[in-house]
Amino acid sequence: MTNPIISIETQLQILQTAAxxxxxxAINLEQIEQLRxxxxxxxxxxxxxxxxxxxxxxxxRPRIGSIxxxxxxLLQGKLDEKRQDLQQAQIKAKxxxxxxxxxxxxxxxxxxxxxxxxxxIDRVLDIFTGLGYTVAEGPQIETDYYNFEALNTPPDHPxxxxxxxxxxxxxxxxxxxxxxxQIRYMENNEPPIRVVAPGxxxxxxxxxxxxxxxxxxxxLLAVDKGLTFTDLKxxxxxxxxxxxxxxxxxxxxxxxxxxxxxxxxxxxxxxxxWLEVMGCGMVDPNVLKAVGYDPEIYTGFAAGxxxxxxxxxxxxxxxxxxxxxxxxxxxxxx
Length: 334
Known about the structure:
The chain is α+β, with helices and mostly antiparallel strands. It is built from eleven helices and nine strands.
């Protein structure tokens, strides 16, 4: 019969040799943990071997127990040592990967630029806020009332043909101008008021070099006691002077808008030619009545213009579509 003492002792020696070799060959912390569980865990190989100690005599148990403890301590020490080595190697690899070589050339990251439309709007607002105007905004999806009726344009008014509108289900529409912002502002504020309303507007227009179905407008409105067309002309001429940085010749031509009376279009002399840049006029009394203002006490003036037109003139842009193509070769010029 096989001597149980020799059998257990031999098993411990075999276990120790195999475990030491496996620990030395481990390449990551996950393997070290798995080896600890396999050899020293509650259900590990060492525990399985020690279950056979019940067959030993009382005299031999202490000696085998001592050998088992030595094997356990040896393996635990090897596991801890290997774990520490792998952790240090892991930290070293991470540091090497994150090390910045200051002698290497830097990676160029291009700086962002303000889009010419945004910079034009900013320039316009800076001028008008400097003249005492308040910036006001409103919804892009509007009701027929705010976009037309409150601006003296009832359903059967022929002026509606001047603006080919995008109508939405339910009777709403995409605003055709930012004049609707003026109505909303007047409904909630008492005169005197001076507001400037920038925003995106929409019209059914054929896209070409000078037209777009989506574009931007800025409109201004002033309502107070005693305002006249002279005040309107002075404001517009001062704005044009500050915007273009020169005393450009300016021409006011009689025109028609349903929400102003009298109305005019503004031309500036640019490169030897007259260029229309803006519409304006005195606020029609019916518009003042629509918001609860007494036209016998208050008068007002309004003006509006397309941001794209001003940006094209300012930057010598030949095609409005360039402003929307997101071509970096174009945008890097600004």
